[in-house]
Amino acid sequence: MSDAGLIWMELPPLPYYITIGHSTYSPGEQHPARRSLGLFDLLWVIKGTLYIGEDDNQWEVTEGQTLLLLPDRHHYPVKPCDVETVFYWIHVDFIGKWSLISERSASPVYPQVRNSWENPFTIRIPQYSSPPEFALAERHLRKLLANSAQQRSSTYWSEQQLFMELLLLLEAGQSRSDASPALKLAERIEAYLRQHFQSDVTNTSLAEEFHFHPNYIVRCMKEIYDCTPMAYLHAYRIEQAKLLLIKTEWSIARIAESVGFLNAPYFSNCFKEATHISPLRFRKQHAL
């Protein structure tokens, strides 16, 4: 049995559901061999066992397990099925950047700031897994298969939504349970900074809020977000200022105060350092 890996998909764009099928193999039948399908092939085994390989890796995918076959690889049967085997397959298109990462070496670095023009994110889907919510996934799969026989105009959004819920079940099944302490703390701090960016937040106040030493908080943020808490806070304040410059006619002084800067001159200097233009010029660029 090959080691499991994680498929990292950098969003946007989102993975796109193409179609679903339901297959039953009698004993002696096997999955066909294919090369460079051009689509991800997501298998959900309901009954029996699929013996399938991909390049140098081989798996026994049994009842309640999933396997995500990659679009640019050679897929082949390892041996025929021993018993009747029933499974769903989903073809998925993804034109964004993806990579296969060993679970042992996976240590995610998230985008530094959720800003106003971009909201990048990386989802991590296990290539081979046993989702704890498999019964719920099977209900989604049955609905998805039923939708595939209906008029596309009436089921399109339902199909995409069901597919996203299946991806969420796959990701949630492995990401939250084994999340590192650094990841858990960094995500809490990141959310806190976004909620309190207008306040006077410091490393000391974060230590008091989360009951950890300031050095440990800084280390966790740098490990996960590749920046210190104060650097994240500073960048987030600049992003919020960009929104206010476009969405309001507030003065520079009012915007500076609203996003947590001490005074307008300091805010203007920080804004220009981050964007290479002044707040007023930024506003004029987006004005009619």
TrEMBL record:
<dbReference type="InterPro" id="IPR037923">
    <property type="entry name" value="HTH-like"/>
</dbReference>
<protein>
    <submittedName>
        <fullName>AraC family transcriptional regulator</fullName>
    </submittedName>
</protein>
<keyword id="KW-0804">Transcription</keyword>
<keyword id="KW-0238">DNA-binding</keyword>
<keyword id="KW-0805">Transcription regulation</keyword>
<feature type="domain" description="HTH araC/xylS-type">
    <location>
        <begin position="187"/>
        <end position="285"/>
    </location>
</feature>
<dbReference type="InterPro" id="IPR009057">
    <property type="entry name" value="Homeodomain-like_sf"/>
</dbReference>
<dbReference type="GO" id="GO:0003700">
    <property type="term" value="F:DNA-binding transcription factor activity"/>
</dbReference>
<dbReference type="InterPro" id="IPR018060">
    <property type="entry name" value="HTH_AraC"/>
</dbReference>
<dbReference type="Pfam" id="PF12833">
    <property type="entry name" value="HTH_18"/>
</dbReference>
<dbReference type="GO" id="GO:0043565">
    <property type="term" value="F:sequence-specific DNA binding"/>
</dbReference>
